[in-house]
Amino acid sequence: MMFYKDTLLKQVLKPGRYTGGEFGQVIKDPSKVDCRWVFAFPDTYEIGMSNLGVRILYGALNAEPDIYCERTYAPWVDMEEQLEKHGIPLTSHETGMPLSEFDIVGFTLQYELCYTNVLNMLKLGKIPLASAERGEDDPIVIGGGPCSYNPEPIADFFDVFSIGEGEVALVDFSKLYIKMKKNGTYSRSAFLHEAAKLPGFYVPSLYDVSYNEDGTVKAYTPVYGDVPAKVTKRIVEDFNTAFYPDKPVMPYIECVQDRITLEIMRGCIRGCRFCQAGMIYRPVREKDPALLNEQARRTFENTGYDEISLCSLSTSDYTGLRELTNGLLSWTDDNMISLTLPSLRADSFTDELMQKISSVRTSTLTFAPEAGTQRLRDVINKNLTEEEVLRACRVAFSNGKTAVKLYFMIGHPTETDEDIKGIAELAKTVIKSFYELDDRPKGKPQVTISVACFIPKPFTAFQWEPQDSLEEYRRKQKLLGSCCDDRRIKYNYHDADGSLIEAVLARGDRRLCAVMLEACRRGMRFDAWSEYFDFDKWMRLFSDCGIDPAFYANRRRRDDEIMPWDVIDCGVSKKFLLSEKKKAYEGKTTQSCAEGCAGCGANSLGGVNRWCPLTKK
User: Fold this and answer.
1) Residue 215 lies in domain
2) How confident is the model at residue 613 (pLDDT cuts 50, 70, 90)?
3) Is 601:311 a contact under the CB 8 Å cutoff?
4) C-alpha to C-alpha distances, 221 to 154, 158, 308, 509, nearest whole angstrom
5) Cα atoms in the Cβ-side hemisphere of radius 13 Å centred on 332
6) Residue 409 — φ and ψ, nearest 5°?
């Protein structure tokens, strides 16, 4: 460890990524705990330290006296080179213990293009990549997070997946491990069998997968009769009881988000048909404003952060927003703390909200129309009109802003060139509305349009839809660029190449595990970073492994087709998603949870949800 600090850190660009010893880290006597975790974030330290989910699980596990959770992050390429050069394994931040010596190694899976980092970290940690090749002394490798709702493309490398919210589930998982170790019944296979019986845990090796002649999935069959045919996600029913990390680990170097992140609600009352998060995080649960205010104050006292960000999928839908912001502003102004409200919907952005965030440094406000025409916004169930977008922009302009950002997506089902052109027309209309205001600020308006490529994701109404071809995406991007002929419009768009790979991994099956293994052998990692993403290398990889990317990304799927993720139950029924797909093609919208229950099925999971009459109050 001394060699690691004194020699290796002098050879890398950002040594603060690897030193550990941060204020707020948890240190326990390893001899006095019964289960040792290392939580592995498959990206750089700066990104991992900004992730609220990691902070929550780190704190929730360490709150248990017999469990010790440490941290590790993907080393940047310069550190990886040094580790391999000197034969040093990847270690934890807190105690410097190699990953291979922990009881449990947990990965959070936030983004499909981080999968190569997962395998690379296992390799650097001296852990056998394939679950089937691990022995009794190897760690249990567990994954969780949004990508675990279709874990099949990396199923061979994980012993188990935590489906849903882990604050309580991972403690239960650890307690089972401790119990079996103490009573002498533990073996790797016996533990995984018992873990599969716990609510919310999917053990891929306990399910056989068969395929039809056309390559589609035929069936998932449990190996044992006492293993559930479908794994239902786990939730925290009363969000007021959810663990909150008010003593977070403080990084030594600047991170992506150096602020207090206050999670005000989980789930979303809207039903955008392309949005996976809006489905998999249902049912909607809110936290009490007074409790949030108390948690924010405690975190400020423990950290000294000068910014609070309210975190949710749709902040302005939080019913206690006025009470919460009033409570926060009663003490944040005196302490010179900025308040930011991301994820605001244009239809609920008001002068009052603008006034409450006016103390924030002059930054660009972002709204997400998602589509350029009303017809297409109805198809995707955005439930947002052009006038509501313009009103929100006028509110921003009237309160001193000269710049707004509009977020769109191209490639939606039924999209036409008129819908593409409508994006530029909407931006021009926003600029026109600036000049129509008597109280507009000095200066010229700037409208930035940021355009992503549609990716059909599991557990959405569009999970059956094909993704546009790369040629079609590029044509649409060029068409939109030709329409943005006003200097006051700044046009940014995402590269379509990465979107294709993301779609393949998002909708793939277990046969892609061979692709991921070969990717690791070829040294691929940091594919979420433009400087290391190599599209041609990915296409050669697919070809060499006998995989057609179009089969996963660009193929329309039958309504009755068994999906690779059908072994998972996120609470939202397939019947509901099919009905939403049908309504999309009819151009019909579905009301939000606040207007009435649409019968998505998430109420079956329970939870304290003030909107749904079928859930507990």
Assistant:
1) 2-232
2) low
3) no
4) 18, 18, 47, 15
5) 27
6) -135, 135
CATH number at residue 9: 3.40.50.280
Contacts for 7-15: CB closer than 8 Å, 24+ residues apart: 7/86, 8/79, 8/82, 8/83, 8/86, 8/88, 11/78, 11/82, 12/76, 12/78, 12/79, 12/82, 13/76, 13/78, 14/45, 14/76, 14/253
> What are the CA-CA distances from residue 117 to residues 77, 193, 334, 391 (Å)?
11, 28, 43, 43
CA atoms within a 13 Å half-sphere pointing along the CA-CB vector of 422: 19
Number of Cα atoms under 13 Å in the Cβ half of residue 434: 21
Of 313, 465, 452, 459, the residue nearest 379 (C-alpha) = 465
Helix 470-483 and helix 417-435: axis angle, to 10°? 30
In a domain, 41, yes or no: yes
Task: Give 134's contacts (C-beta < 8 A, 6+ positions apart).
Answer: 127, 128, 141, 159, 188
Structure tokens at 440: 């507009």
Q: Which two structure tokens, joined as six digits, stand for 316?
A: 């302005």
- pLDDT-derived band at 360 (thresholds 50, 70, 90) equals very low
Structural domains of the chain, count: 1
Mean pLDDT of the chain: 94
| 155 is a domain residue | yes
384: its two tokens: 């947002």
Helix 289-303 / helix 321-332 crossing angle, nearest 10 deg: 30
pTM over 0.85: yes
Distance CA 616, CA 607 (A): 6
SS3 (DSSP) at 12: coil
Identify the helix (H) or strand (E) that includes residue 302: helix 289-303
On the 0-12 / 13-18 / 19+ scale of CB atoms within 10 A, 526 is buried
How wide is the angle at C-alpha 70 spanned by C-alphas 68 and 76, nearest 5°?
Answer: 170
Report the distance separating Cα 605 and Cα 616, nearest Å. 10
Q: What is the pLDDT of residues 266-292, one digit of tens each?
A: 999 999 999 999 999 999 999 999 999
Residue 460 dihedral angles phi and psi, to the nearest 5°: -125, 165
Task: Give 504's DSSP letter.
Answer: H
> How far is the CA of 8 from the CAs of 101, 123, 125, 526, in angstroms?
21, 19, 17, 21
Please give the C-alpha separations between residue 197 and each of 40, 186, 190, 226, 418, in angstroms, as whole numbers: 25, 15, 11, 7, 52
**Distance in angstroms between the alpha carbons of the first and the last residue of the chain:** 52
Residue 45 inside a domain? The answer is yes
In a domain, 418, yes or no: no
The angle subtended at Cα 406 by Cα 384 and Cα 314, nearest 5°, is 55
Mean pLDDT of all residues in 252-277? 94
pLDDT in tens, 174-206: 999 999 999 999 999 999 999 999 999 999 999
Mean pLDDT of 157-181: 98
Cα separation values, 129 from 72, 91, 162, 456, Å: 17, 17, 19, 29
Tens digits of residue pLDDT in 549-601: 999 999 999 999 999 999 999 999 999 999 999 999 999 999 999 999 999 99
Residue partners of 117: CB distance under 8 A and separation at least 6: 42, 43, 74, 525, 526, 527, 528
